[in-house]
Amino acid sequence: MLSERLYSKRFAFWEVCPDIAEIKLFLKAPEIEEDHPVNQAIREILPLLDDNPGIAGGYKLYNTEDLSLDTGSQIRGYMKGASYLALFTCTAGKLFSELTGRYNKEGNYLEAFVADAIGSLTVENAMNTIQAHLEAKMKEEGLNISNRYSPGYCNWPLIGQAALFGYMRDIPVDVSLTESCLMLPIKSVSGIIGVGTHIKKKAYACKICKNKNCTYRKLIQ
Amino acid sequence: MSEILNKLHDCVESGKVNLAAPFPPQMKGQPGADEYTKEALEQGVSPVDIMNIALIPAMDKVGQKFSEHKIFVPQMLISAKAMNAAMQHLKPYFQAGEVKRKGTFIIGTVFGDLHDIGKNLVAMMIEGAGWEVIDLGIDVKTEKFAEAVLQYPGAIVGISALLTTTMNNMKPVVEAIRQVSPATKIIVGGSPLSSDFASSIGADAYAKDPQEGVRWLDTLVA
């Protein structure tokens, strides 16, 4: 029996704030001058995010046989041998949508783009922390974890979000789903992580995923 | 190209917005698109020449470089900002009808979808190519597209979607537009789309990036 089935955490922005080099790499502007507009935008935006109250994430662990999720054959293969599945959600909060909306309205599209990028990195950093907590907890139980997989990636249809969210109502994280399976706030992630004695982390799966425009691919290339 | 138009072209291509802008470093302390446009008009250069000789070719180069992955989104947005600085001075001439645009382009992200970065990039590049752009925003309902087509007769429509779940919402939009205006040309775009998908929903074209959209639009006025 697992000692902890449900976990959630709220973050202060400084705990999960991407560093400037990481942001610039994500924006494909790693080596730019101090006065470059991207640097100016980063310097302007980061302080505006200091008081972001909405960054939170969590997971709930289920026995694999208690779940009915159609993740597609690819992810099903990765979950083979999993005794448990950790269903997770994590959000960087609605401040990012508000900020990008405001910048777009003012015609400051570069600033909107930079704020959006910081939001993507922030939610990934927060989720990395949640995943690290899960990994440490499962290690105590003698269990391994897999990579995390999300609807819309690795051939798991995005429509799978609906079933996934049906199992995550207990997680106290404020993320909702629209009819088109879009998460709100937009800067949110969700998905599953396999847990078991024979489960392994794989080299990142971008090479076999069909989604050529995804955030994860951008992060590692 | 006259010297001032040449300078204006370079400012837009490299993203030099105005005198105060410290970027790009090699142009620091020099006038930008804002000042050169004003100066060109004061010198009697026609707004049409400013558009056709400096601004449109500069943005075309930017779009081409983006297509070839020589520059990325931030650089494109910086150039668009310089272009906008120039366009502010030309607005009165557009309003007075002294400068004709190539046509009207209505754009929006399909209903159910809240993504706007791709849509905004396309809108900017198409405006930079000399079109009047009517941006309907995100999560645009079918009826709103149909109403816009009636409001702007002869306009071309662009529909954007980022999700596999929302790309399917494009078909009812295409059908609704065809119902009120069968001859309206429609182009679609967004990362999960393909030209096969565009054909399957009855759209006239698919663009994989903004520049491809600009090229297609230009074939309609050629």
The shape of chain B, in one word, is globular
Shape of chain A: elongated
Structural class of chain B: alpha/beta
* CATH topology group of the largest domain in chain B: Rossmann fold
Strand percentage of chain A: 15-25%
Number of helical elements of chain B? 10
Descriptive key words:
A: about 220 residues; alpha+beta; NADH Oxidase; two-stranded antiparallel sheet; 7 strands; about 40% helix; about 20% strand; B: about 220 residues; alpha/beta; Methyltransferase, Methionine Synthase (B12-binding Domains), Chain A, domain 1; Rossmann fold; 2 domains; five-stranded parallel β-sheet; 10 helices
Report on the structure:
The complex is a heterodimer of chains A (221) and B (222). With 221 residues, chain A is of the alpha+beta class. Chain A has a single domain, classed as NADH Oxidase (3-Layer(aba) Sandwich). Chain A has helices at 13-16, 20-26, 37-48, 73-78, 95-106, 109-140, 161-166, 215-220; strands at 6-10, 56-63, 84-91, 144-149, 176-177, 183-184, 188-196. In chain A, helix 3 (37-48) crosses helix 6 and helix 5 (95-106) packs antiparallel against helix 6. Chain B has 2 domains: 3-95, Methyltransferase, Methionine Synthase (B12-binding Domains), Chain A, domain 1 (Orthogonal Bundle), CATH 1.10.1240; 104-221, 3-Layer(aba) Sandwich (Rossmann fold). Chain B is built from 10 helices and 5 strands, in the order ααααβαβαβααβαβα. In chain B, helix 4 crosses helix 5 and helix 5 (117-128) crosses helix 10. Chain B is globular, with a radius of gyration of 18 Å.
